[in-house]
């Protein structure tokens, strides 16, 4: 009887133990997607109303562009000036309401502009194509030394980064002179407020001067929505061709 109880206990223990499995081999096969592959009609029919609604929203004409806005230009481009100007214009009232201060400068990046705004009717789709990223507007408070650093960065980069509120001249020896903020000489020991994207505010595109900021205000306003809202507010796009950077 003693042996029977021991055997019964041992058997019960084995039967209650969960088996343990381990993956020893994984196999896969690449299946290419081609035009010959057609989705199931049930799925297509389910998606179609949503796709049609999105297409209708994106294709609605919001304004008119009197010219092609593109990225051509040595130190500034018409699309860059346009985007910097409207980002400044749309961001400033929000920043002023929250802080009782005003934005001085807008700086974006040339590489962030992904395509042109063609002459003719413009739509929300144009805004998504120009600015496909989920970047939002951020205002950084920068000491005057970093404003000079911004100008030197642009000269060294040799790229027409979108700029508003800041003008300067590139001297023959490649140094910066005649630097003005809102038409006035740079003031020492003053904080200037620069609106940019959250990506750049964190040092993206080697804009490390933003990491030296003394304050930061996230506006919770996507750059793409700034473009769309501007389109909705005007009948015809206004392109300010004021020279921001000159070279001797």
UniProtKB/TrEMBL annotation:
Domain of life: Bacteria
SUPFAM superfamilies tied to this protein: 5'-nucleotidase (syn. UDP-sugar hydrolase), C-terminal domain (SSF55816)
Residue ranges constituting the 5'-Nucleotidase C-terminal domain according to the UniProt record: 75-211
PROSITE patterns: PROKAR_LIPOPROTEIN (PS51257)
A GO MF term: hydrolase activity
Example GO biological process: nucleotide catabolic process
PANTHER family from the UniProt entry: 5'-NUCLEOTIDASE (PTHR11575:SF24), 5'-NUCLEOTIDASE-RELATED (PTHR11575)
Name of protein: 5'-nucleotidase-like protein
């Amino acid at each position: 009887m003693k042996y029977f109880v021991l055997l019964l206990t041992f058997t019960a223990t084995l039967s209650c133990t969960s088996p343990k499995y381990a993956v020893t081999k994984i196999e896969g096969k690449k299946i290419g997607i081609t035009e010959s592959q057609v989705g199931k009609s049930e799925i297509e029919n389910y998606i179609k109303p949503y796709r049609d609604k999105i297409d209708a929203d994106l294709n609605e004409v919001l304004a008119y562009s009197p010219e092609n806005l593109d990225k051509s230009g040595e130190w500034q481009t018409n699309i860059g000036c346009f985007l910097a100007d409207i980002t400044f214009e749309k961001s400033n009232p929000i920043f002023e309401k929250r802080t009782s201060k005003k934005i001085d400068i807008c700086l974006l990046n040339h590489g962030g502009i992904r395509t042109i705004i063609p002459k003719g009717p413009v739509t929300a789709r144009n805004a998504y194509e120009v600015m496909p990223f989920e970047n939002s507007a951020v205002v950084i408070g920068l000491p005057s030394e970093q404003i000079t650093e911004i100008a030197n960065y642009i000269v060294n980069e040799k790229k027409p980064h979108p700029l508003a509120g800041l003008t300067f001249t590139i001297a023959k020896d490649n140094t910066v002179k005649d630097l003005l903020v809102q038409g006035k000489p740079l003031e020492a020991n003053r904080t200037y407020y620069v609106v940019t994207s959250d990506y750049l505010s964190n040092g993206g595109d080697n804009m490390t001067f933003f990491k030296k900021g003394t304050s930061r205000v996230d506006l919770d306003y996507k750059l793409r929505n700034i473009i769309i809202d501007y389109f909705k507010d005007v009948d015809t796009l206004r392109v300010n061709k004021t020279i921001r950077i000159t070279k001797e």
